[in-house]
């Protein structure tokens, strides 16, 4: 198992760096899909199959499709090589160092007495066994009950994005054509 | 810095490296689509951070095996029915209530024992980070969609998706 | 019936605009959508005033969503502070809608009107949701609702720079939101809970402060982007300048204020001032950034020729005053910060409305086109003058109340250099306000201004409502400074 984890972590790091280095947009989008897929695999190992499925479907699927269609609409403009500024690198290194400093007091990976695992007591799994009359998937149970309101918020975010995309992409000049969807547009 | 803490924390460090790579892409890239991609990588890595937190040693995914779940479901239904019965008869006779209540208590104790036995065997990872990240993934894709719509619009207006060229065009106006 | 409504006020406040938004889309007609949005926003305003009344009586109103008790479920928790912020956010949201139709008709193509009002309602939902919730992750979700809708609203501006401004805001805003998400994650890891009150009780002060420290730093940086604190304010001038007038009025008056609200909640409700100001020297850093921000942004405002951009830089400076008050962490200082949120919302909302009136009649917000407009549009120009006086902080205006409280607090804590710097910075405000007044009243009319007529009453009345309110709350303070003081005392752990 450990070997697989190391391999996935290394691949994730390599893919991320490749995305940062590559100039050709098409390749970058493909690598982004791969990155999502690798994350999803690691999530499976980390006992989060629900998130893994969603990440594979949304991150590797929908988002790649969206990016490819945007690229189709905007052209495969490659990045223009320029002299690189050192400021972003500096900001990123400072931020990263801050985060690493923050990990020093963290409970170790997988530790059973981390606050996350011991609080609240009884745990979500036990609570939901009693409350949900034995719904097997606890994540689903939580999503629809205790954190159901977040799920409503999430749906609202999707609604907002939908309306926003219509608002942004609808043509200004064709006022008499009310149903021009984003997907039908040609550049 | 002991070996133990390195072994316990390296996962987080890898995740931090990934997050920062994404962050770097957002900050350093001038191509608008590439900035959106950087944002994607940044956010996906934050999902990993949360999921890493929820994992517990020797744990398994928070899905209760159907057999145990079924047992549990029977137990709670049984309790529910008996409780209803208790309420219905409450007005009629106190003795009956006592009897029923005793029965209920027994049932609960029985099943509680079974359950306790079952859950000592299985350790579940914390489901809450997964729940939060399901929400965050959807928020992330919504942001991506909106950003890409804006990119299409900008490209229509300026004819390019390169930020510096766009700024030059604006200056020349 | 009434009791049942009162019991569900906190959720009603959110659900009303939330449900009305898809309805607006479904009607698909600009006029109907507008009427629906107008009615709903006034209903939300009524709810939040009732809510504020409740909190003044009971101090804290709690509402468990779906009856799941915290820390398992999500809890709404409204105290005087959140009640106050919600009341003025929804109030200004409603007044801006009264003002909106003519300006919207002028600046946004008719086929998009119903979508515009739906997005406006969603933005309001997000902002109110951030105020009402007692759950940290829920704050993130509602922050995203308000952010996504404001990106879309900003992109509707007439010039091609508007979508670009929206995109730049989206990138910076999403970085901010992701920082907030990281911060929430680290706090969750150290406490095992997302409920704010629960985190405050469980956050480890001795063991493991490094992680908490970093969590706090990330939340602060994330919120600073949203608040547009100098030097993270770069998205704001473009966004405010190129957005449609109505959108600028609404966002300038409410969005940054709600982020300030979240920041105050973070310091006083989650991390506790003891940790933020004693363990961390946050107060001195915050003060430094606020003062530098006030000066640089005020000076930048002086050099602007676009009035909306001038007001935008002034907004960056005013956020500095709010943070200055908050960083003093005394009842007077904190109430100065809180009341300035309210006063500045009125002033900036009013001034951007004036800019919208001129934009409608003159077709431009460039100072050169505004020349001499005071002669042809006297009422609008006088509104500017009064709002400008309030912005400077002249006695008898709302701006004076906040600055007076800030000065008092600076003297109370023996920080007299800050008091001096504040007075100097007010002089800078005099310069940029006067620059516009001079153009309006004392120069030869430009071509556009000579032929202009007074702004329509439907826009002038809401404008004067806000501008008049700045005068009203300059002399009559029980419902502004009074409530702010109670809110500050509750935040600092006392009983009013």
How would you describe what is shown here?
- The complex is a heterotrimer of chains A (187), B (173) and C (496).
- Chain A is mostly helical and 187 residues long.
- Chain A has 2 domains: 1-78; 115-187, no CATH class.
- Chain A has helices spanning 2-21, 25-45, 49-74, 87-103, 115-118, 124-131, 138-144, 148-169.
- In chain A, helix 1 runs antiparallel to helix 2 (25-45) and helix 2 (25-45) runs antiparallel to helix 3.
- The longest helix of chain A has 26 residues, at 49-74.
- Mean pLDDT of chain A is 85; it is low at 174-187.
- Chain B folds into 2 domains: 1-62 and 124-173, Orthogonal Bundle (Helix Hairpins); 63-123.
- Chain B is built from 6 helices and no strands.
- Chain B has helices at residues 3-28, 32-54, 66-89, 94-121, 128-158, 163-172.
- In chain B, helix 1 (3-28) runs antiparallel to helix 2, helix 2 packs antiparallel against helix 5 and helix 3 (66-89) runs antiparallel to helix 4 (94-121).
- Chain C is mostly helical.
- Chain C has a domain at 281-496.
- Helix content of chain C is 79%, strand content 2%.
- Chain C has 22 helices and 2 strands.
- In chain C, strands 1-2 form a two-stranded antiparallel ribbon.
- The longest helix of chain C is centred in the C-terminal third of the chain and has 32 residues, at 331-362.
- The mean pLDDT of chain C is 91.
- Chains in contact: A-B, A-C, B-C.
Question: What would a concise description of this structure say?
Answer:
The complex is a heterotrimer of chains A (187), B (173) and C (496). Chain A is an all-alpha fold.
Terminal residue distance of chain C: 31 Å
- Report the total helices of chain C: 22
How would the global form of chain C be characterised?
A: globular
Query: β content of chain A, as a range?
Result: under 5%
Instruction: Give the overall silhouette of chain A.
Output: globular
Strand content of chain C: under 5%
Query: Radius of gyration of chain C in whole Å, from Cα?
Result: 21 Å
How many distinct beta strands of chain C? Answer: 2
Membrane topology (chain B): Multi-pass membrane protein
Family (chain B): Belongs to the CPA3 antiporters (TC 2.A.63) subunit C family.
Main location (chain B): membrane
Transmembrane segments (chain B): 12-28, 35-53, 131-152
